[in-house]
Amino acid sequence: MRGKIDCFLACGDVRGIMPLVETLRNSRTVHDINLIMTAGQDETSGGVPEGCMVMTADSVVGSATIREMAARATAEYVMFLTKPVSVSLGMAATERLLRVADDSDAAMVYSDHWTVEHGERRPHPVIDYQEGSVRDDFDFGSLLLINTALLHRYAEEAAPAADYRYAGLYDLRLYLSRVGKLFHINEYLYTEEETDTRASGVRQFDYVNPANRDVQIEMEHAVTAHLDAIGVLIDTHDYACPDFGEQDFPVEASVIIPVRNRVRTILDAVESATRQKASFDYNVIVVDNHSTDGTTEALAAMAGGDARIIHIIPERTDLGIGGCWNMAVNDERCGRFAVQLDSDDLYSSENTLQTIVDAFRKQRAAMVVGAYRMCDFRLNTLPPGLIAHNEWTDENGPNNALRINGLGAPRAFFTPLLRQIQFPNTSYGEDYALGLIFSRRYRIGRIYDELYLCRRWEGNSDAALSIEKVNANNVYKDRLRTLEISARRRMLQGKADIQADSSLHRFFNRQLERWDDARQRYRELQRVETKELQGDTFALVAQWNPARMVSTGASIDRSAVEARPCFLCEKNRPAVQIKKVIDARFELLVNPFPILPMHFTIPLRSHRPQSIADCYAEIYRLLDEYPDLTVFYNGPKCGASAPDHAHLQAGTTGVLPLQHDWQRLSRNLAPVAVCGDTEGIWLVADYPCAALAIRTASAEAGVRMFRDVLRALPLRDGESEPMMNIVSWRSGGEYISVVMPRRKHRPDCYSADGDARFVVSPGALDMAGLIITPREEDFRRLTPEVAVGILREVSLTESETDAVVERIKTAVGASYGGNGNSSAEAGAASADAGLSPVLGDGVPEVQVGIVSGRRIVFTLNAPYTAKGETIEGGQVVEFSEGGILWNGNQYRQLTFTPQSADASFSLSDVTIGVNFHWERKETQVFRGTLRLVVEADNIVAINTLPVEDYLVSVISSEMKATSSVEFLKAHAVISRSWLLAQMDKRRRLKDGQNSFFSFIKKDDELIRWYDREDHTIFDVCADDHCQRYQGITRADNSSVAAAVKATCGQILVYGNEICDARFSKCCGGVTEEFQYCWEDTPKPYLLSVKDCDADGHDFCNTADREILSQVLNDYDCETPDFYRWRVDYTQEELSELVNGNMKDDLGGIVDLVPVERGKSGRISRLKIVGTKKTVIIGKELEIRRTLSRTHLYSSAFEVQRHDIAGGVPQRFTLNGAGWGHGVGLCQIGAAVMGARGYKYDSILLHYYSGAEIRKVY
């Protein structure tokens, strides 16, 4: 332990510090002692102690001081006395500090201590440091022991960018908390003289004192940088705007007053609330938490004379202030906005409530905080006076909020959000907790004018808390900040919140809280039994739902309907049923007899018979407002249990079999009247009943097309409109509305006798494939044949459907640009032509870069022509004087054109697996044209050939003949799609469109991605960086040729875009999203997908050698790890790899810290912490290249550090998942799917969300 500590002591008075210096001089642990003095300080006062050095500093806690300490420190640890106070060390204190620092491997240690106040020694315990202990007034005591190596790292990495006068030490300890532990020793190791003897209630407002503004600005800058470094910085530009109309409320605002035993002040507080002048109705909710001092009686008397006062006495006896708030806001009488008023306090004026409510709407805020003045019981101002929290800014307020201990008062909340979040049931920090949570996603409005009087009087304040109470409070608020940091990190990583942040969800949940019967039926729905009814071309689902008998068994004849009150009219609804006003015509109700997990009824606000003419346009408005809903319509005799009142229904989208199978169905739509490829009317083929699909990106066009359909449907005698059901939903930017015309209300089996009877009364959801059976016996006996028969019986017949189609074609053909199939073909051709200029007439040709070098050797295996001559046999070209030297002549480029279709050429020394672990050279044979061009002092060999021939070679190189046919077809489609997308991208880049840099480079950051934009003179290269192309060397796979031929011209498209159909060897269980591997332009069809079957088993988690051999050719089989893998490095190995690959000197590698991960867990930004330098690298391929001699299998890994010595690990373990970038199709997963019998279109649509397969030539 000898000489392990360099001491740096803040010195205000040499005589006062002499006892500490003497102790340190006599300790064998101490190496050097430095006294930190100000420039004007008299160093001769008492003389500088022997053996001490003087360090002059303007500020003990400034950045310059920290840097100077780092420059002077040579021992393993630095002892820093942060305040010029008298300190005496306990017995063996330095030895104990040193021992704990070493044993804990901490970045910094601190301890409990004694304080001397007014001559009296008192214990001063401190608290443990948490991740959320980011407030700048955290009490470490005045004596710190810091790891010198980390101090040096800070000086090299962070300190150069920091130039703080006040926040230097704060910035240092935030840094230390990022790279190590701040360890608390629960032992009293020293005694210090306390110089700040103000009460805790006075000190807590230092951060809002205008005199400290410069200090606070620096502290805010430091914490903002820290939050950014740990990945939790909130960007307020991403805030959501609250929907203030999401629910109805009895009043606009409620003043909330929790109280216990405040008979002296409560009546003043309530009167302050009731005197408010406002343009809206409000009430005052007082939650009386079992007062025993007369408060209850006083409130009861006051409430008796004013109906606005609501006096609540909870049944529970365990409520804190937060629990009392929850009682108030969950009460059905609570208003739209809940506004705070503590039982000791007063509103400053009679306009406070109006001002707050106005601020919600003006600032589009979910929470509003005002300014308050501290005063005594006689309203005399107390220091610090007005507390306005001017430190808050719209841009950075939610980040700086983590540094400070309060947000201000009065606080007001948008009630639906407050009900969703709920207060913690505490009596301290409960409001701060809510402020942090609200500020995560929503704007907090601020009012800087005085609104509120915070009265301090004997017995009611926190003005002089004990150290134990102060610590308990700080531990709790630090814990709140720790939770908030974790929550923000999850949010910014894109992880789902446990509570859906949706006004519709909040409305739904509020209704279930209030309506016991409805809540019970939704619970029962979660347990209903379902079964699949697999038909020849379509799978229906049966649901046994006894609660639906009320609808299925309803009589809808005229006399029955007239005899009962309309249950959709507001006057006849249950009192507990709440409504959400949608617009001037419609409102939304929770359906109390659900079929779907969320099920709504949307009635017209006036009582009018069911009519689609009143409702259809509303479908599009609903889908615009709530794109996650499916909206459906039951005609008066097609499932509507309230035919006397016009209404729609809506519910959870994606549940219906029609939607599940839409991707397949949409590929076989028969055009009726279409315009282009994305808008028009189609007949849905392969569906159990008649169905017409209206697809459009425009609501107006959708309404026009529906009118065309409506006019073509048969209208039966005595009916007000054609019989029909409609199911509509959104898919990306497209509206899909499926109209199912009918001819019968109920099937014959509904009223049959005995075993022939099935009580099934089809509505829109039944017609969409979800058959509702209220009776168990029907559910058990229902077969696919019976279910399909029911749908066909009530639907139009085939001949009736054909007649409808012809009427639509005749009526609207001209306005849609033609009719029938010729229109569709013209539209498709137009759409395909619009996809890309690479799609001309016939099969396009691709240019493939094969090899480059200063000398290329090749053989023409059959006659070729070049420069007007016919050539055959061995050839050599060399780079010379900027051109190509061939046969003694120099050319800028050469083209060798084959004279027959089967002519080939051989290229020597073609490298496969460039920079991969299987890299090797071989001679390869190619068909097509050979072009030689000069690029950057090299000759490049380019092969031009038809795309379909190229694909046979590519897929033969990638796959074995034993691969399943469906897997090969899937691969043919994605290889073709990817290739055409790259060819299109290259042409657009060449034309100057959409150009961008594929890297971001700074002194401490290198973000680079590798893509086809690197290829400027050919479309794709022949190696794995694009697609592995080896000519006809391995193109003898007849199964591949058959798969390519079977899918000739088929590609994946999304809207009018060719899909950039990426694929990799093994996703590791979850596919990645495009933007985490390449440019920051997310692609809607390359979303993260859980690559598993219905039982949750990952497709790519297989050891089946037969399946693996389909994807892993012989040289790939040399790599046994793909689903899960592990790599171990020594410090020497890793530092050599990193420094060598980066061509930089980071020194030893201290840590590998993921800064950003994609949805699959792949790291897209990695911080490499070295002893000399820290850099951030990305994206995934750059990370893989940096951490391996060739390529790490993937960037989806976790880092373990071992044998840490002096803060530097001696070994690293990377535990990883997957092989490759993981975007798009997982080859091993797809091979497993093919082996299990999945069709190629199912495989493709599993990996490419929302895409469709289209034949383009």
Quick structural gist:
The chain is an alpha+beta fold and 1257 residues long. The protein contains 36 helices and 55 strands. Helix 14 (430-441) packs parallel to helix 15, helix 30 crosses helix 36 (1240-1247) and helix 32 (1105-1111) packs across helix 35 (1227-1235).
Task: Describe what this molecule looks like in 3D.
This protein is an alpha+beta fold. It contains 36 helices and 55 strands. The strands form nine sheets. Strands 32, 33, 34, 35, 36, 37, 38, 39, 40, 41 and 44 form an eleven-stranded mixed β-sheet that branches. Strands 21-22-23-25-24-29-30-28-27-26 form a ten-stranded antiparallel β-sheet. Strands 1, 2, 3, 4, 5, 6, 7, 8 and 9 form a nine-stranded mixed β-sheet that branches. Strand 6 and strand 7 form a beta hairpin. Helix 23 crosses helix 27, helix 29 packs across helix 30 and helix 29 packs across helix 31. About 2% of the residues have low confidence.
